[in-house]
Predict the 3D structure of the following.
Amino acid sequence: MQINGKAVEACGGEFFDVKNPATGELIDRVPMGSENDVDMAVGAAAAASGGWAATSPQQRGVILYRAAGIVRQKKDELAVLLTREQGKPLFEAKNEIEGFANVLEYYCGLAGSLRGDFVTVPQNGYAFTAKKPLGVCAAIIPWNMPALIMAWKIGPALISGNTVVLKPASNTPLTNLALASVLNEAGLPAGVLNVVTGPGNSVGEALVRSREVKKISFTGESGTGKRVAELAAGGMKRVTLELGGSDPMLVCDDAEIESAAIGALRGRFYNCGQTCTAVKRVYVFESVAEEFIKKLEAGIRNLRVGNGLDGNISVGPLNNLSQWEYVKGLVTEIKEKDEGKVLTGGKVPEGCEYEKGYFFEPSLVVDVPRDSRLLNEEVFGPVLPVVTVKDLDEAIEEANNTRYGLGASLWTKNLDRIRTGCEKLNAGVVWINQHLKVAPEVPFGGVKESGMGRENGPDALLEYMDTKTIMLKV
Ligand code: NDP
């Protein structure tokens, strides 16, 4: 844990293990925080709040910019730590660490844009608006992209003058702790960023309930998001919820089939399929289905599964035992119920021992019935179902037939189809001829049960500030 810029032990003196999902080895033990630790961290953040809010956005930007520079210098060691606790291949971990620095730098660039407004009103009146930080904000992080998602939350929160208490996922606290140390090294005043490690249902809930916490930015499963929203409502707190997704990919008969197959391959198997905006369902026109599936299958067979620290690995292990059990169970059920044809993969690789690596072969499943769990649950793992459709109307209807609405991609060269897709696909992000791309400059978030609020882009700043109106009659 880190409170007031220092590493501290938990009040109860207990620890929990962080293990490497590729080998089962113990990497480190971190303090098992409790409600008392949350109180201390929130107290530190509240005490630092006035001083931090009184600095200029530019002064805050200088510190964040310095932190981004240190992160770039330490990229290799941070990436190794991320791969060891999360499992992703080293090249993906390096991308993610760079992404952390990119997001901080983007918000440093926006420091000068934080300002209110001036309005004239009838009958000789004037109104001013001032943008005020909210105070103490909570950031609750999942295990799939702990570094990038940390930046999405602390970047806009800190630059706009808030202080933060961050709760990492219990499977991946080490990279978050290391990044928080970098911010301290860069000169962040004590108490501005605090980290409490420990279980979601105790530490997470205590943080959401805490009276001093004015805003919660949560990324995780939709079910947990609903619980967070319910608790936050009790204190009338602001929330940003970035939740699950079941992103569809729609491939038309005029699409570049080679690019679409590569898009599906990267979109599904990046981070071992554990990305909120992964391609989770493909709807391909019947007339090009055979060609698309053939290319995709060939690409999947070329993927190399293994320990993310070994060279030339394209897919690491699943992050944890429960995800591994879920994916194995789901594919076994599909086979037993004859719910689709597994063209490749569909099993644990040879020699993979229980609890010594949560590996699963990248899998392609075709002829999947519409009511299959594979199409109706958020499958956070390396399994891709492909369904054939007769036209765009059917593809859009199937794509929208979900409780989620995070992302969706449409693959076509036809302008009319692009216009229809942009209008009718019910998702927070619609990609055309690409999938998965996110950028610090572009707002990101979902509709329906994929959440509320936006991260990234200038819109995210508004999620961390209040508008105060001052009316003046002279
Ligand atoms: P969880 O919802 O299980 O956990 C997310 C975080 O919430 C963890 O830090 C967890 O702590 C904590 N938590 C758990 N229970 C509570 C609670 N009752 N109150 C407060 N906090 C709690 O999600 P996962 O970690 O399994 O992450 C995977 C999910 O995240 C997927 O659904 C994925 O789609 C989604 N996601 C969404 C993104 C988006 O931007 N829309 C981006 C990335 C992921 P602990 O680890 O201790 O349990």
About this structure: The two ends are 53 Å apart (CA to CA). The chain is about 40% helix and 20% strand.
